[in-house]
C-alpha cells in the first residue's frame, strides 16, 4: 500500500478537508498515480486516528470532484483522469514585472418585489469594511505601487486569490496562473479573442444558458453551438458531436437550471477536452453560495491544463466593482496578460490592493459566511412559499446560488404569468429566452427567480402574488 503521507493538524480545522487536500496534493505531485487503490475508509480512519465519517466525507468530496472513483467490489481508487502537474515549461515562467445585453437595466423601482435574477443583496455590501481595507491599502502602499501595474494584476492580489481559490475551490492556482480581469465577462471576451486566434470557429455553450454571454460571443465572431443540459449537467455526448473544441460551462450551479455537474460528467468532460485538445471555460457561477452540502471543488483543480477557471466578486460583493480573475494554464495566462497589456494596461490598482487586503484580513471569508446564512434563510422562505402557493410547480436549483428555477405547472403560459406577475408588482424572468431557438418551443414553462434582494417576509408576499399570477396564467 502506498504510504499516503497525510499529515493532519488537529488544531487547524476540519479534518476531512485536510485529508482531501492531502490526496489532491499527492495526485498533483505525482506521488499518487491513477489507479492506485486506497485503503478502506475504516482502515484509513484507524491509521489516522479519526472517525470513519471524517474519511468517508473526504472520499465523497474527492469522488464528486473527479479525483477518485469508487466501484462496488473494487474499492476506491485514484481516478484514471487524475494526473500530476507537468514539470514547469519555459512558458510556465512567472510573468515579468510589469434580455438587455447590458445588465445595468436590472433594478427597476417600478416593481415592489424585484425577483429578477443575477443580483446579490447590494444593501449588504460591507461598505465600512471595504473602506477600512481601502484605507489600509492607501496608507501602506509605497509611491512606486501607484504606477502602471503588471497587466496581469498586482502581485498581492494574485497571491491572495491563488491562496483563496486553492483553499476554498480546490483550484490549482499559483500566482503565475492568475490574471486579474474585470469580471467573468471580461475574462470570457479576452479568451474568445485567443480562441479565435487559435483557429476556433465555434464555442459550445449550455442549453439553456445565460443570455448575457451570447451577444459577447457573437461579437467575437465565434459561432455559438448549443449543447443540452440534463439532470447531470451538460451532455458531453452532444458536445462531442458538436464539433466545437471549446466549451463554456457553469459546473458549480448551472445557469439557469441550478444543476450541479455530476462526478461522471466531470470526468467525461475532462476526457473530452483531452481527446480533442480542447479547452473548458469554467464559469464558477454561484460557487460561493452552497447551502446543503460541501462545495464541490472546481473542475480546474482536476485538470489545470485543460480548464480555465473564471470567477469574480460580482455575486459575492457587488457587480459594480468589476473585479474578477482567470486561472489559466501558464501559456494561456501569459497570453491573457499580454492581451491586457495591449488593450487596457490592467485593472485599477487601488481596487486591486483593496480586495487583496480584504481577503488577507479574513474579511472576505467572514462576509461570505454572513451572506450564506442570509441567503439560505431567504431561499428557504421563497422555496417553501412557492411550493405552498403554486401547487404542481417544480422548484429546482435550491442547493446553491441566489436564484431558483421554477418549472410551472403544465398548461401555464410563461409569458402570461410573467405579464400578470409584473402587473401585480413582481418582476420575474421567464426562462424561454435562455433556451436555444431549437429547444425553446418544447421547453417547459419556467421562471428564474432571484431571491437575494429581499428579506423573508417580502419573499413570502411575492410568492403569494406569483401564485395568483400563475392561477390566472393557465391556458384555456
Ligand atoms: C452565468 C453568468 N456568468 C457570469 C456573468 C458575469 O459576471 P461578471 O459580473 O463577473 O462579469 C453573468 C452575468 O450576470 C452570468 O449570468
Describe this structure in words.
The chain has about 475 residues and is an alpha/beta fold. It has three domains: about 15-80, Winged helix-like DNA-binding domain superfamily/Winged helix DNA-binding domain (Arc Repressor Mutant, subunit A), CATH 1.10.10; about 110-120 and about 365-470, Aspartate Aminotransferase, domain 1 (Alpha-Beta Complex); about 145-360, Aspartate Aminotransferase, domain 2 (3-Layer(aba) Sandwich), CATH 3.40.640.10. It is built from 15 helices and 16 strands. The strands form four sheets. Strands 4-11-10-9-8-5-6-7 form an eight-stranded mixed beta sheet, sandwiched between helices. It has a four-stranded antiparallel beta sheet with strand order 12-13-16-15. Strands 1-2 form a two-stranded antiparallel sheet. Helix 2 (about 40-50) crosses helix 3 (about 50-65), helix 5 crosses helix 11 and helix 12 (about 365-390) runs parallel beside helix 15. It is globular, with a radius of gyration of 23 Å. Mean pLDDT is about 90; it is low at about 90-100. Pyridoxal-5'-phosphate binds near residues 118, 183, 210, 319 and 324. One of its GO terms (molecular function) is DNA binding. In the C-terminal section; belongs to the class-I pyridoxal-phosphate-dependent aminotransferase family. Keywords: Aminotransferase, DNA-binding, Pyridoxal phosphate, Transcription, Transcription regulation, Transferase. This is PLP-dependent aminotransferase family protein.
